[in-house]
Q: What sequence folds into this?
């Protein structure tokens, strides 16, 4: 979280831009929430339809958890690379000055 706040600080204005970090947090949180909710609903529906109490629920929740973790790790790595590139740009600009 510290790197998000460091990224958000504008050196010229000395103000904090909260939009970027909030967007990142929302995007990463959505990778946790939506697949699990969809898995819960689909698993419950399939169990009621086929009368197979926890079987489909557990299978679908397991698959949604794997999808959720894959998306979360992928987006986290992408955001980390953006932050690294942004920091490299700031350092190179400071060296020029």
A:
């Amino acid at each position: 979280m510290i790197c998000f706040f460091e990224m958000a600080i504008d050196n010229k204005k000395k103000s904090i831009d909260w939009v970027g970090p909030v967007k990142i947090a929302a995007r990463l949180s959505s990778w946790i929430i939506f697949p699990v909710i969809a898995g819960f609903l689909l698993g419950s529906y399939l169990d009621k339809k086929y009368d197979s109490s926890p079987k489909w629920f557990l299978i679908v929740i397991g698959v949604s958890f794997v999808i959720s973790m894959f998306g979360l790790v992928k987006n986290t790595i992408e955001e980390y690379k953006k932050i690294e590139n942004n920091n490299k740009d700031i350092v190179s600009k400071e060296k020029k000055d």
Notes: The chain has one domain: 17-87. Helices lie at 2-8, 19-50, 55-96. Residues 5 and 47 are 45 Å apart (CA to CA).
